[in-house]
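Example 9 (inverse folding). The structure is encoded as follows.
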């Protein structure tokens, strides 16, 4: 890498053109695909020093699973390592080599689940996207903050590629290596920014929470998120959406294809509305003329038949049930007092977030604010509100900034 980046501060970031980074400084390493090559890489990574930049590439939108199809690492004294995880049952030897080192990731919550599947779990981490949010940056994508803080421009045109492709094209591997090329420098620059703003302890709490986060609970009735379902009327038609959604999900899982690659949501909605009873009727619908629509016509018809034969007692509700508060736009008619509490609480969060140069959603999760306002603690005062927030996953720095004012906001 021969180009040197411009010296970047906030003032110069808007006036000095960034340098386009097209190649890693040490070149693109060979992808590790064998046990012997992995053993050598693990030894090299273990001999390195300092934090470890790490990234993973998935095949979202192409595959059903969220597994990693490429792992990238970079460490001082090691350089960049690219690992194809497909030949390996796990990467626990690599995990042991970097055990105790700080991991640097961008948008860690996206990559941690697929890394955990390979027995790669951090003890400590630094999330550059989350750090940029806490610093109040408007644009927090990797390319944007690299450009702002380091003066380099990164091309992101392979971010939505099908990383299950084999062999991986050279240009994709270059892109992947560049994703970790500057993460260590970026971490240092963001850490300095957060310290200058007095937010380093907030960031430490947020990063610690990421290392302890468990997998999110499955959504209730995920079929209700079918795009266009609002066009479907009646419980029986909704049962057809549900049956088709689950049939598609099962087929997508077996083929390890994204559900949209089987048939699109629009096809499910069309079938639910038309309720076809013969193959000719089904394949005449938009969305069923492709490979999986036509060749699996009988499969789809069986799903529709099951929905048609369901007793009334087993039909889905026409409106979804909610474990927590109802949608906020219905509060004024359902509970005007709670709606007033929510308005006051939102105003508090917005005011404090503006004062502290934070996104409101990073100051306090909107779902937590809604839960507090819908069913506030029976006892008034700061302490019960603080405990309520804590029980809903709020961090201590958030509670310290908001508990007192939120306690006042939820008092009727």
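The amino acid assigned to each position is listed next.
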């Amino acid at each position: 890498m021969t180009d040197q980046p411009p010296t970047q501060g906030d003032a110069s970031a808007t006036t000095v053109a960034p340098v386009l980074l097209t190649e890693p400084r040490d070149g693109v390493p060979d992808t590790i695909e064998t046990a012997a090559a992995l053993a050598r890489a693990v030894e090299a990574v273990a001999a390195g020093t300092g934090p470890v930049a790490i990234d993973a590439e998935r095949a979202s939108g192409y595959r059903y699973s969220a597994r990693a199809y490429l792992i990238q690492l970079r460490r001082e004294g090691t350089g960049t390592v690219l690992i194809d995880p497909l030949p390996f049952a796990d990467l626990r030897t690599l995990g042991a080599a970097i055990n105790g080192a700080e991991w640097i990731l961008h948008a860690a919550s996206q990559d941690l689940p697929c890394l955990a599947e390979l027995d790669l779990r951090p003890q400590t981490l630094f999330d550059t996207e989350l750090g940029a949010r806490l610093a109040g940056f408007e644009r927090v994508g990797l390319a944007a903050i690299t450009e702002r803080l380091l003066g380099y421009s990164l091309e992101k045109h392979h971010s939505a590629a099908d990383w299950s492709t084999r062999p991986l094209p050279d240009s994709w591997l270059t892109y992947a290596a560049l994703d970790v090329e500057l993460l260590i420098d970026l971490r240092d620059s963001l850490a300095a920014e957060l310290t200058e703003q007095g937010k380093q302890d907030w960031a430490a709490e947020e990063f610690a929470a990421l290392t302890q986060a468990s997998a999110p609970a499955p959504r209730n009735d995920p079929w209700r998120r079918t795009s266009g379902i609002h066009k479907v009327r009646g419980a029986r038609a909704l049962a057809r959406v549900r049956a088709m959604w689950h049939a598609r999900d099962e087929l997508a899982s077996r083929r390890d294809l994204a559900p949209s690659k089987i048939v699109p949501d629009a096809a499910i909605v069309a079938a639910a509305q038309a309720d076809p009873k013969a193959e000719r009727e089904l394949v005449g619908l938009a969305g069923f003329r492709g490979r999986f629509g036509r060749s699996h016509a009988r499969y789809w018809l069986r799903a529709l038949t099951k929905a048609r034969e369901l007793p009334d007692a087993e039909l889905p509700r026409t409106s979804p049930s909610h474990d927590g508060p109802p949608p906020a736009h219905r509060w004024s008619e359902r509970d005007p007092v709670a709606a007033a509490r929510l308005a006051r609480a939102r105003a508090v969060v917005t005011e404090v977030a503006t004062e502290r140069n934070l996104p409101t959603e990073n100051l306090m999760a909107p779902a937590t604010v809604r839960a507090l306002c819908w069913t506030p603690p029976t006892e008034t005062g700061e302490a019960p509100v603080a405990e309520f927030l804590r029980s809903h996953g709020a961090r201590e720095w958030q509670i310290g900034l908001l508990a007192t004012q939120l306690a006042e906001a939820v008092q009727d």
